[in-house]
Amino acid sequence: MTTPTASPTATAGSTAERRAPKSPPPGRRPRDGRSRIRRHLPTSPWLFAAPGLLVAGAFSLYPFLSTVANSFTDRRTLLPGRFVGLDNYREMLGDEMFWIGLRNSTLYVLGVVPALVVLPLLLALLVEKQIPGISFFRSAFYTPVVASIVVVGLIWVWLLDERGLVNAVLEAVGVGRVGFLSDQWLLLLSAMAVTVWKGLGYYMIIYLAALANVPRELHEAASVDGAGAVRRFLAVTLPAVRSTVVLVGALSSVAAFKVFSEVYLMAGPDGGPAGEDTTLVMLVQRTGTGLSGRVGYASAISVVVFVVTVALMLLVLRADRKEGA
Amino acid sequence: MPIPRRTARRAAAAAAALAVVLPLSACGGGSGGGGAADASGKVQGSITFQTWNLRANFKPYFTGLIAEFEKKYPGTEVKWIDQPAEGYADKLSADAAGGTLPDVVNVSPDLLAPLAKAGLALDLDKAAAQYEKEYLPGAWAGHRIPGMEGTYAFPWYLNTGPLFYNKRLFEEAGLDAERPPTTYDELFEQSLRIADESKGRIATLANIPTIEDFGRYGVPLMNEEGTAFTFNDAKGVELLTRYKELYEAKALDPQALTATSESAGKKFLTQSVAMNPGSALDLEKFRKDAPALYENIGITEQISSTGKDNMYVMGVMVNARTERAPAAVAFAHFVTDARHQMEFAKQVAIFPSTAGSLDDPYFTKEDGTDGTRVRIAAAKSLKTAVNYTPVLMSDQMKTELRNAVARALQGKESPEEALDNAVKACDRLLRQS
């Protein structure tokens, strides 16, 4: 057995090296370059990670911790806060607008996520075929993804306006005008439709990548066994892209719960008639910004949004694990 | 050297504690009192001046103004910043919270109130009282904050405007287009008639009543001490009840509940609503963007039960924490003095807030054009006009009122209930501010 004071120049990988002291004895300088590297090795990962850690700390960790801290204060935009314990959370329980926001954000998840999980997969199946001109359709479906949400919102507002194109068509076919932008529920549904329309292309691309990795031989084998297109999709394609379906489900549910732009643009800054279409993130924006913003209360709502989104992610992942088991 | 696990844990805990403690101590200037910057001394040094969406149309005016100031006071330099109209309050709050508020800032009284309460606006009654007599008394008083001593901004330009209406739509409803409504009774009666004749296709108004409308209707908005809102009195309930009738008859646009003043203006441009408030600035817009509307445009006075029109007031405040107080005060006064306000008014349809300026022939002498007619009428009404928006009413409070009005119009609450709830919510926000 080698003694702990064995030479630091012992062969790499030997037991002697693994047990060697990490630095040379006092007064002795390392005798070759390999020792010098070994001496600095433990700090190196930290040095490499430092820029990333600093950025993450400054722009993610600090704001996050600061939001949590603010949620226990009555801080306002221009006035320093005092510690108020759980007062903000208590107030939230009795705040009608908070419950409206929670209801709408939850409805948004329920309305948007199934559509964003299923429709892009069907779309990807349609455009995965290598036929002439297919790239045009792929680009066309992807265009809404790259379009600015403000532009998209405005276009849909014009389309769905009481005197917009959609209502003109409905009136021409005898249905009459529909208050897409004046009825509380139709407004929320319209915003969901825009979210789905804008998100289709993005998730379609994710599915296309997954579909490209489905082994062709499995399809061929299934065909030989007499499986039709639907059977092949259910028995071969779906299991192969299951993890992607879960990923899309997780991403879209978090995005749907945090929805802001679509509803803000279509329902207006007040969140629709009497604020009935307000979502939680809109409430954070409305409460916490401006010169009289209630930063403490808005932070408390933000913490709730964070907890719910983490819970959503865990729920989806847990469902996936159960299914996979 | 490896970082021992215990040290790493301690460092992480310290960082977390710091992150928790820092926000509690961060920014926020304490409350009230206005700043104590000393405005006496030599006017020199570099200052920043922020305007509110003025660069696009008035760049030559402001560059000339700044050059003139720098020439008058050698050794000074003014850096001009302009912010877009959208999100101006958010930009101000970010600057104020971050300690980067410019030295001289264009504000409206409701934006000024929280800045003054946070001690970020210089008290001009202490620092520049000698200039008070140059301005209209009402305009100077418009920058006082209820519950606080002092005046916190130089009055700048004032704005008001007539009510525009679409003569063609009035005629189609069998109304006399040359006799537009002049009282609230006539307004409601004619609106119902237009809705009835057009079978609900043409609304007369596209906006739900705002706090200014309540003020013009004669509703007391706040108590004198500025400690509670009062717009839920019988007159307020009456106004809301009458608007509910309009909404149910489609005389108020169905999308009014979610409308902004911009979207309502657009509906008037496309001739789907018959009336819309505006300013002298709008006439040119109608001529350029909607010639068909311009041919039929009717102009009438604001409808008011108090005999006083609503006016919007702009001010120029000095940052109480400026390191160049003499230069900042001198520049804020320079921008708002009678000569420069008059020059600015001649470039754009706004009105000066300086004493005697509205008696200038530019605001009194007819030349037969619509533009001049609107300008003269507006200048005349400004002599008695009131800024109905209470300076202590924040954006959140305005949202509470709008939501309450929407609930009443939809029939979810009675007008009385809705206004009571709005007052309760606004009072709570007022106490928290």
TrEMBL record, chain A:
<feature type="transmembrane region" description="Helical">
    <location>
        <begin position="139"/>
        <end position="159"/>
    </location>
</feature>
<keyword id="KW-0812">Transmembrane</keyword>
<protein>
    <submittedName>
        <fullName>Sugar ABC transporter permease</fullName>
    </submittedName>
</protein>
<feature type="transmembrane region" description="Helical">
    <location>
        <begin position="46"/>
        <end position="65"/>
    </location>
</feature>
<feature type="transmembrane region" description="Helical">
    <location>
        <begin position="295"/>
        <end position="317"/>
    </location>
</feature>
<dbReference type="InterPro" id="IPR035906">
    <property type="entry name" value="MetI-like_sf"/>
</dbReference>
<dbReference type="GO" id="GO:0055085">
    <property type="term" value="P:transmembrane transport"/>
</dbReference>
<dbReference type="InterPro" id="IPR000515">
    <property type="entry name" value="MetI-like"/>
</dbReference>
<feature type="transmembrane region" description="Helical">
    <location>
        <begin position="233"/>
        <end position="257"/>
    </location>
</feature>
<dbReference type="GO" id="GO:0005886">
    <property type="term" value="C:plasma membrane"/>
</dbReference>
<feature type="region of interest" description="Disordered">
    <location>
        <begin position="1"/>
        <end position="36"/>
    </location>
</feature>
<feature type="transmembrane region" description="Helical">
    <location>
        <begin position="107"/>
        <end position="127"/>
    </location>
</feature>
<dbReference type="Pfam" id="PF00528">
    <property type="entry name" value="BPD_transp_1"/>
</dbReference>
<comment type="similarity">
    <text>Belongs to the binding-protein-dependent transport system permease family.</text>
</comment>
<keyword id="KW-1133">Transmembrane helix</keyword>
<keyword id="KW-1003">Cell membrane</keyword>
<keyword id="KW-0813">Transport</keyword>
<dbReference type="InterPro" id="IPR051393">
    <property type="entry name" value="ABC_transporter_permease"/>
</dbReference>
<feature type="domain" description="ABC transmembrane type-1">
    <location>
        <begin position="102"/>
        <end position="316"/>
    </location>
</feature>
<feature type="transmembrane region" description="Helical">
    <location>
        <begin position="185"/>
        <end position="212"/>
    </location>
</feature>
<keyword id="KW-0472">Membrane</keyword>
<feature type="compositionally biased region" description="Low complexity">
    <location>
        <begin position="1"/>
        <end position="15"/>
    </location>
</feature>
TrEMBL record, chain B:
<keyword id="KW-0732">Signal</keyword>
<keyword id="KW-0564">Palmitate</keyword>
<dbReference type="InterPro" id="IPR006059">
    <property type="entry name" value="SBP"/>
</dbReference>
<keyword id="KW-0449">Lipoprotein</keyword>
<keyword id="KW-1003">Cell membrane</keyword>
<protein>
    <submittedName>
        <fullName>Sugar ABC transporter substrate-binding protein</fullName>
    </submittedName>
</protein>
<dbReference type="InterPro" id="IPR050490">
    <property type="entry name" value="Bact_solute-bd_prot1"/>
</dbReference>
<feature type="signal peptide">
    <location>
        <begin position="1"/>
        <end position="26"/>
    </location>
</feature>
<keyword id="KW-0472">Membrane</keyword>
<dbReference type="Pfam" id="PF01547">
    <property type="entry name" value="SBP_bac_1"/>
</dbReference>
